[in-house]
Hints:
The chain has helices at 16-32, 46-54, 56-63, 126-136, 140-148, 152-172, 187-194, 199-219, 235-247, 251-271, 276-279, 281-299, 304-316, 334-355, 363-376, 389-392, and strands at 10-12, 38-44, 69-74, 84-91, 94-104, 107-110, 223-225.
Amino acid sequence: MKSIRELYKIGYGPSSSHTIGPTRAAQVFLSENGGAERYRVVLLGSLAYTGKGHGTDEAVKKAFSGRKVEVVFDKTTQPAHPNAMIFTAFYDGKTLTKEIHSVGGGDIRVVGEENGSPDIYAEKNFDEVKKICIKNDITLWQYALEREGRQIYGFLADVWNTMKACIEEGLQASGVLPGGLGVQRRAAELLTKARPTNGNVREDRLVSAYAFAASEQNASGGKVVTAPTCGACGVVPSVLYYFKNKKRCSDEAVYNALLSAGVVGNVIKRNASISGAECGCQAEVGSACAMAAAGLASLKGMSLHETECSAEISLEHHLGLTCDPVGGLVQIPCIERNAFAAMSAINAVNLSSVLAESRKVDLDTIIATMFETGCDLARGYKETSIGGLAKHFDGNKVIC
Ligand code: SF4
C-alpha cells in the first residue's frame, strides 16, 4: 500500500475524480507537451455524463490556461475505464495522444506507463496489518507511524488545519450553492439549532452542522481534503472536529486518529475502490464512514478489534449505496449523505464497544463484498446521473 499522503489530498472541490484528477492529468500531459499549437481533451464515461455539473471542463481549461484547448464530452464511446480522458496535442504536421484515467480520490493512471510512488506498506489487507499489530503489541496508528515516520506529523498538521478551516468557513457562509439547483447552505442553521439542545440531539446536530459545512464548501469549489474523496470530504473531519472539541483532545491525538483512518482508507483503496464512478457511493461515503469510525475509535483509545469492528459495521451498512448526484452536482444527495454517514460512524463505534468480541464478519470480507457489489451495480448508479435520484428528482415540485 502507498503512503497515506496519497490518500489525503488538499485540493479544490467539488470532485476528486472529476476536478482534482483531471487537473493533475492535464498537468502531467502539459509537462511533456507544453509547446503544441493547440490541444483537445475528450472526456469519456462518467466524466462525460457528470463532468459538466462537477466542473471538469472548467478545471481542465484552467490547467491549460493561456493555451488553445477544446474540451469535448463524449457519451457515445465506450471507455476502458469509467473516468477516462484522451489528451491530444496538435503540433505542425503531427499529433501526440495520451489516455489518462482518473481512478478516484484525485489519483490518475497514465495508460501504458509505470504509475505511482512505491509502496511503503508491505501488508496488502487488514488481516496482514492486524497480525503485525498483534505480534508487536501496537495500535493501528502506531503501526502507520512506524511505516510513515515521524515526519508524517507535519503533513497531518496541514491536513487537519485544512479540514478545520473548511468546517469553520463553511459554518460562516450563507446563500445558495452554485450550479442551478437552488440548494441553500444549511450548516449555519444546523449549528444555531444545536445550541439550545442537549444529549443526542445536540450531538447529531453539531456533527451534521460540521459535515454540512465541509460538504457545502466542497460543493462551492472550496479548499478541502480528500478523505477519501471530495464528495465524501465532510465525514471524517466532522466526527474528529466534534470529539476533539468535546473531549479537548490534543492535536497529536487527532493526527493519530487520521493515521488509523488512513490505514482503513488505504486498505479499501488497495483492495476495492474509493471511486463513485467505479463502485457507487458505497465506495466514497461508505469508505469515509469506515475511516471516520476507525479514527474515532482511535481517539477514544479503543482496542484493535473494536477499531476494526467499527470500520466493518460502517462499511457493511453502506453496501449497495448508489451514486446518483442530481444534475451531476455534488449536492443532492451528497451533502446530507455526509452528515448521515458521520452520525452512522459514531453509532458504529458505540455498537462495536459491545459487539466486537462476538462479531462474525471481518473488515476484509466487507471490503471484498463492497467491490463485487460495486462491479455489479448498473452503470446508471455509478456517477452518471442517469439513474436513481438523479432520474426521479423533480426540482420543480413544491414540498414546503
Ligand atoms: S452520490 Fe456519493 S459518490 Fe456520488 S457524487 Fe455524491 S458523494 Fe460522490
